[in-house]
Amino acid sequence: MSMRIGLGWDSHAFKPGVPLKIGGLAIDHSEGLAGHSDGDVLLHAITDALLGAVSAGDIGSFFPPGDARWKDADSSIFLNVALEEIQNAGYRIVNVDTTLVLAAPKIGPIASDMRDRVAELLHLKPSDVGIKAKTPEGLNADHVAQAHAVVLIEKIEDELGLLSKADVEEMQNQLENLITEAHGTRPRRIPIRKAIYDTDDIT
Ligand code: MG
What is the pLDDT of residues 162-174, one digit of tens each? Predict the structure, then answer.
């Protein structure tokens, strides 16, 4: 089975007068996270982990901070683009694990809600999402929120036991060579690939 991993990290400074959003969850707190977008440090780290897992660049290459379109943008937009990259590469997420590093607010009491929200955004079961939090002991970073994320993805074709397009093409060529050898003429090409892949319901 073909599996890949991705790693993401992000940090944002706290800023008064801004709503706080972490993991797609609105959190009642005196400060929010400064950023060009909504500053959702956790979704940014997960987005980078997903993009990294399929070697598709990073969040900044898809959404440059200087682009006015992403001012105050909901970070789930970024996440959805990364999910598309995973899907286009023929993979699906196995699980995601994360660690937040911040002095306040306390994540423990809302970790379960955050896990449910992140799972919903990633189309995963809550049991496939890890949300952990630590305080920044000794880092002198009490006014910063940091997020670390790792993701494991697996190839969809392998899991279903389907052949890749390259495998099908190779088999088709071998079959044609055998027929040509036996009959002296090349057979008409059968549109095998279209029959196999022209479906919306591959899962
Ligand atoms: Mg960020």
Answer: 666 667 778 888 8
